[in-house]
Design a protein that fits this description.
Length: about 325
């Protein structure tokens, strides 16, 4: 069986698209000094329904057994997670020809204000500073966000993720993940900040940013970097997405497989849940929704001795639960 690459896997904290998304599989027998990283991110075997033979499934299970042994015992053996990194007052970034660094927080606040975004939060990880922004031109029904992450030493590379949501649909999708997926996934979905939505894409990929879809700040002056960011947002985001302000328009892009919101080849169960909620809110036929969403539902297999619903079971359940949630909201 071909082992998936870390970059091909679904969301894992920290949240940005790119190198911070996955991590090496922890080896419980490895020496703690250097062999096991301070923070553990577990990559899962992911496949679409029906693509693996029983022999391949057994082989995958054997690989996981060899890596994890008793999975729950392994999880309990991990070092306690340290408290979140305290947010620095400033994020220093060196630009081309500069004699001193600029503050990335102030720089992005000013730059994004020109295209109608306001800051809503920040996160700090061991290897990344994350800044979230909400579009002031969002509607009460559909919120638009953009997230910037700074990596490297010191914070040299900028990457960005654009997302949008109908808040009740994303909240429903989070609840579905927590209820229906194996425990190994629950921590990821429980920790996501509000600006990380089910519908999202990498701005750098769409705007042809260099350096692995990132901007190398050391190659730009402050003016040139601001212009590059503003131009990318105006061209890719505002021109194409500003009109998405209703449940109907959001649902239509949610179920399609079109740029910039392409479906992951391995499926996306969180987006499926959000689409089911939006579709039922619009009165879409459950049978049509099921036939549309089952092929988009990935088969997530956690470590041995755990269970996950089939794609058909998952879609049936989220459609049923969406009806119950909508009935409760209207009652």
């Amino acid at each position: 069986m071909t082992e998936p690459k870390a970059g091909d896997l679904p969301n894992a904290a920290p949240p940005m698209d790119g190198s911070a998304k996955g991590g090496a599989i922890g080896n419980p027998s490895a020496d703690a000094s250097g062999q096991i990283a301070r923070r553990h991110h577990i990559d899962h075997i992911v496949a679409r329904p029906g693509r693996l033979s029983e022999a391949e499934r057994a082989q995958g299970a054997a690989i996981l057994e060899r890596e994890f042994g008793d999975y729950e015992r392994f999880r309990r053996s991990l070092p306690k997670e340290e408290p979140p990194t305290k947010l620095p007052k400033t994020i220093p970034v060196w630009l081309a020809g500069a004699k001193k660094p600029i503050d990335l927080v102030d720089f992005l606040n000013q730059t994004l204000a020109h295209v109608g975004y306001a800051p809503i939060g920040r996160l700090a990880y061991d290897s990344m500073n994350v800044l979230g922004f909400r579009a002031l031109w969002s509607s009460p029904i559909v919120e638009h966000f953009i997230e910037f992450g700074a990596t490297g030493r010191p914070n040299e590379y900028l990457q960005a993720s654009v997302s949008l949501r109908h808040p009740p649909a994303d909240a429903f999708a989070n609840e579905a993940q927590l209820r229906l997926l194996p425990a190994a996934y629950r921590e990821v979905y429980a920790q996501q900040p509000p600006w990380q939505c089910k519908m999202h894409f990498d701005l750098g990929q769409q705007a042809a940013w260099e350096a692995r879809s990132r901007l190398d700040s050391a190659e730009y002056s402050a003016t040139a970097l601001a212009q590059r960011i503003e131009e990318s947002i105006r061209t890719i985001v505002i021109t194409k997405l500003e009109a998405i302000k209703s449940i109907k328009s959001l649902f239509e892009i949610c179920v399609r497989d079109e740029e910039p919101f392409r479906w992951f080849p391995w499926g996306d169960s969180s987006r499926v849940a959000a689409a089911a909620y939006l579709g039922r809110k619009l009165g879409r036929d459950p049978a049509w929704l099921k036939s549309t969403l089952v092929p988009r539902t990935g088969r997530f297999k956690s470590p041995p001795n755990t269970s996950a619903p089939t794609a058909e079971e998952y879609v049936d359940r989220v459609i049923h639960d969406a009806d119950a949630a909508l009935a409760g909201a209207s009652g």
